[in-house]
């Protein structure tokens, strides 16, 4: 995990994470995620966001009146997060690891958001440890939202889009059936929908939805930026109408698993 953390930390120091959800493709991901979170929110809920990044979701939910506990691993993200706090914000921010949530008691949360850690945890054991901790701190009947990065988006947008396919195959980075083989130099761990379903099989969880949070939006990012506002709003309506379709989920850049603890 130490080596993985150093690679992830270097990645976030090289990009502007604060801007990731602000372009129009990013807004699709953000608004879709928030739309589904709001379906299950009730007044007075206590929410944990694990891997809170620079605080986009945590701050929004806190400012809506929910009690939010935000956990983030990287100091660079925490600095940005804390810089955005207002005097009236009532939010508890901790530095911590998704695989060790001993700072929280069993069944202490009404909703647990795991919107970033699965992007960067390599190997089934690490992913299951993070999921086990999220399940542990969530009360029976509580909701879990777990986000993943998808294999096909990388193969299509990078291997084919940036014409690195032959080089990647020669390096053994792709299997014969086009599964990306993450290595110690990768910041991201990629999955397919079948992998997501398999990860949760051993836990007391009921799946409500598996949704394509950005769907085709990253493929269409240039077009979306040029759309006039009314057409973009119609695109959002269209996206929300199809984001649960199983035949479209696998090609999305990001997928959100919506689960209830039994």
Topology at a glance:
Blueprint: H1 2-14, H2 24-40, E1 46-50, H3 56-63, E2 67-72, H4 75-83, E3 91-95, E4 109-114, H5 124-137, E5 138-150, H6 151-160, H7 165-170, E6 190-191, H8 193-199, E7 205-212, H9 221-226, H10 229-242, H11 246-249, E8 254-261
Parallel strand pairs: 1-2, 1-4, 2-3, 4-5, 5-6
Antiparallel strand pairs: 5-8, 7-8
Structure description:
- This protein is an alpha/beta fold.
- Helices cover 41% and strands 20% of the residues.
- Strands 1, 2, 3, 4, 5, 6, 7 and 8 form an eight-stranded mixed beta sheet that branches.
- The radius of gyration is 18 Å and the shape is globular.
- The two termini are 30 Å apart.
- The model has no long low-confidence stretch (mean pLDDT 93).
Quaternary structure: single chain
Please write the string of helix (H) and strand (E) elements: HHEHEHEEHEHHEHEHHHE
Provide the residue-averaged pLDDT.
93
- Quick one: how many beta strands? 8
Radius of gyration, in Å, reads: 18 Å
The number of distinct helices, counting runs of at least 4 residues, comes to 11
Percent of residues in helical segments? 40-55%
Shape: globular
N- to C-terminal separation?
A: 30 Å
Structural class: alpha/beta
Q: Main beta sheet: strand number and arrangement?
A: 8 strands, mixed
Percent strand:
15-25%
Poorly predicted segments: none
